[in-house]
Amino acid sequence: MSRLLTAWRLPLRLARRDAMRHRARALLVVAMIALPVLAVTTADVLIQTATVSGPESVDRRMGASQALVSVSAETNPLQQAPDPDVGYPVFSGDTTLTAPSAEQVSSLLDGARLVELRRTVGQVVTEAGRVGAQALEVDLADPVADGLVRLTSGRLPRSDGEVVVNDALVADGFRVGDRLGFEVGSEVAGGATEPVVVGTAESTTYRDLPFVAGPLGSLGLDSDEQTQWLVDGGPVTWPSVQRLNELGALVASRAVIEDPPPASEQYAEVRAQSGTDEGLLPVLALITVMVLLEVVLLAGPAFAVGARAQQRSLALMVASGGTPAQSRRVVLAGAVVLGGTGAVVGVLLGLGLARLLQPVLQGFSQTWFGPFDVPWLHLLAVAAFGLLSAFLAAAVPAVLASRQDVVAVLAGRRGDAPASRRSPVLGAVLLAAGIGASAYGALQPSGGELAIAFGAIPAVLGMILLVPAVLSLVARGAGRLPLTLRYAVRDAHRHRTRTVPAVAAVAATVAGVVALGIGLSSDQREAEETYVSSVADGVGVVRAYEQPARWDALRGAVEREAPGVQVVVQQGLTDSDGGYTSVQRPEGAGFISAGSALGSMVLVSDGPLPPGLVGLSDADARRAEQALGDGRSVVFTGPGVRVDDGEATVVRSTFDEQTGQDQTLARVTLPATYLPLSDPYDGPSAILTPAAAAELGQEPSVVSLLVTGGLDGDQEDTVQEALKGVDPSASIYVERGFQPESDALIAQLVLLGLGGVLMLGGTLTATFLALSDARPDLATLAAVGASPRTRRGVAAAYALVVGGIGSVLGALVGSIPGVAVTWPLTSSPGFGGGGPTGPFLDVPWLMLLALVVALPVLTALVVGASARSRLPLVSRLD
Amino acid sequence: MSGPASSPVLELRDVTRVHGEGEAAVQALRGVSFAAYAGELVAVMGPSGSGKSTLLTLAGGLDTPTSGVVSVEGVDLAGAGAVGRARMRRTSLGYVFQDFNLIPALTAAENVALPLELDGRSGREARALAREALAEVGITELADRFPDHMSGGQQQRVAIARAVVGERRLVLADEPTGALDTETGEDVLRLLRARCDAGAAGVMVTHEARHAAWADRVVFLRDGVVVDETGADHVESLADATAQR
């Protein structure tokens, strides 16, 4: 250990002093490491704070009691986790028990006093209507209930005619002294005599939701389904919990939640259920690797330039007897110092930011957060992540620094090691492996996304190793470029150690954005291609589920709110009497799905087809109307399936609950014309003539109103509101074809924005580091008469090279997983042989163009505008 | 001073160094043989491109010959490997450069202690030895100063202290006075001379005859070949002639 410390003492001292001497560069690296650490720290602390752990939630769940025991009316012996809110209890299905009584429960808890508690969600009657509210019935004055609510004004209820409400209900107009009506479901809760509000109190669980609490009976909540008791007695041990479990009671015990029993004493089956999500770990690993890679690549140029600035010191060290390992250590010590500082600063700032954001975030949450929670172990891991990323970012510059030509450096020349010939080969192999993994994932019947996602890692690493070869190719073809661009390309090639990570950082960012962008666009394309119109575009369908439906009033509401539209009353056979009608179609008649957007699977018409019926060709529509007019029923077949006209059997059945079998009520055989529907999903299965319906013994009834004449969006909203006014169960649906999800567009814009920020950050950093590194060359340019604007030109050209090459490479590499993922993402088995089945590929060309052309050009302009125009006057031996 | 009868501290035998390959190949040294003994200061002179600096980098183990043998205290540097050569630089030989080449982030004492610390000596021991070396060159009071805050002469004294700290027996100096004024240069040469008189072997590359006059012998190089080698008497006359001019 002491040898290790001795070996690192000098490098660390040199690194610390170097950081102090080059504060700007040091700050840049510290910021690059600190920012992701800060973001993760803030997110982690806020998530931990917002997540209320078992022990943190004990008071709000059970007040000051020792346990909360819940029993259902009918139950089974069960096995539960130490905290019943974690995972699910396992019920034994063999024995059905009646709910244990309070005496039974109490006797198992050494005669502890039980205080009954009832909770539900219901509706408080307000002046404007009704508002959903959380309700609690318990004797709030009982000390055992302390902690369930927090009184803010007035007093606690003393009788079942009194309640307290929270500020959300105060905002709805309730004041102390007001009476409050409470409903559960659509009925006024049993026995409720509108209690009087005597105070305001906040729930310790719910923050912003309307909440009302009072003693048992004050709100009329029933305990038919479930009874809960707060336990006032000694601590409830795990064996007691298990004994109660045998009676079918679920127990949240303060003592058990705060000090869970060892795993060996817990129920194995329950533990197995509450394991970690298996799919989550690889996804987290993937995200960690990609973020690490991005940070490493972004910080890489700074370390490369730092190592370059140190090269003379390192050469002197070698001249004084230093070994290559000691040279490497000096550069890596820079990573330790700056990475360590960045990690610590990031964690501390993250903690501060989380503290500041906590109340803001709490404002968006409907439940109270737990106490400010600092997960030190997590933060240690996050800080280690920061340190590791700095270490990895410095690794390549460190290795190259240890291989530099000492004599050349001491003589004032630059001692770049020649480019490795093996790296491009290894890069090509890794890229091929990435493509292979993507192809493998694409061809998997399920779960291929993970292989594709992990395949992206070797693909990106391979691309990074290929960057020097690409730079070399571009540099070779730079002969005819203008001076500034030629200089930038060749300089980028000559100083690969700083150029490669910068280009790679841009490329990795663009690759991620392109992969996700293609995935998102293709997903949207799939949604568009597989979209099935329920009815013809522009046609509205009014349906109502409350029986008997008030169709005339609904029709009146439509015609009143949308004058000029035509309303057709569609007749059909309904299931309202418990029976249902099915059409027995010939063998091979194809698939027709069970469900009809028009109100019924079996419609009734004496000629005209329902307006908006989709999937029927014009010729077949004419045949259908002809057939109905001639007294023949129309039976639909699957897409493209032609069946000769003949007869169809229509059966009216009902389900016999006693036998568990269908019981035929009526069966008729009718003359029928068979016609194919191009889309089997939303069409009816048949249209019967009124006579056929009568043969079945069925009186056709209205199943929907079909609205034609073009309802616009505003009219649709107005009609909807009017329909709800007539019948809350009624609604109108207007078919408008596929509507792209705004979420997808927002996601693409966010991706583009994020890509832009990272690209700008990476390019700016690399460019200004390059400019600082190229001071002697720029001085030479000045000496031979270059104008002051040349520096701006060089800066812009360098940014264009880094951004341009990076984004082109990134777009190419990102398209590999992007295209591959469309297979598992957008392929569907294709029910019934109808409709497109994918995969669907949609390349977002506009986004690609923005990434590959617009952003690099914009970045170059920003860099050019912000670069100093004055050329430095420095000695070449600087 | 030890005479040629004792074994040399530095010996080059038929050393050739070719830089580059094919048409771009440059022969920096061609079959050079040369030795420096304990107590002896040898000056190497020659025009630019004659191979002086190459000779010094080979002697310091910073480079290896294309053919021939370079040995320090009897150890073949090429055969010692990179790690062995690094150890030799830490323990047996020291460099003095024309432009001082101190590490700006380290204080004078830390610069001098650098080879010792690299060799794994404890910080306290290394600093104590460094202070002794600084005392030898007369700048103990600058021990905690950074190079940026020292004059050229002071920096070169620190560089000499770094080159001689510990038990080094070979000091290699590449134009050690090139960046100094005459008076300071003389001081530096006096220190080098004193170190050699104390038993070290010194090899100094120089352009100037008056500086070469401090040496016991002068080796002349031209186009990578030793063209002449003179004794101390001739060096003194050279210096006189230079002074008269």
Structural summary, described in words:
The complex is a heterodimer of chains A (878) and B (245). Chain A has 878 residues and is α+β, with helices and mostly antiparallel strands. Among the domains of chain A are: 65-78 and 92-258, no CATH class; 435-531 and 741-878, no CATH class; 540-734, no CATH class. Chain A contains 25 helices and 25 strands. In chain A, the strands form four sheets. In chain A, strands 1, 6, 7, 8, 9, 10, 11, 12, 13, 14 and 15 form an eleven-stranded mixed β-sheet that branches. In chain A, a hairpin with a 4-residue loop joins strand 6 and strand 7. Chain A starts with a helix and ends in a 12-residue tail after the last helix. With 245 residues, chain B is an alpha/beta fold. Chain B is globular, with a radius of gyration of 18 Å. Chain B starts with 9 loop residues before the first strand and ends with a helix. In chain B, strands 6-7-8-3-9-10 form a six-stranded mixed β-sheet, with helices on both faces. Chain B has a four-stranded antiparallel β-sheet with strand order 2-1-4-5. In chain B, helix 6 (182-197) links the parallel strand 7 and strand 8 (201-205). The longest helix of chain B has 16 residues, at 182-197. Chain B has eight helices and ten strands. Chain B has helices at residues 52-59, 77-91, 108-118, 123-136, 152-164, 182-197, 209-212, 232-244; strands spanning 10-19, 26-36, 41-45, 67-72, 75-76, 93-96, 170-174, 201-205, 217-222, 225-230.
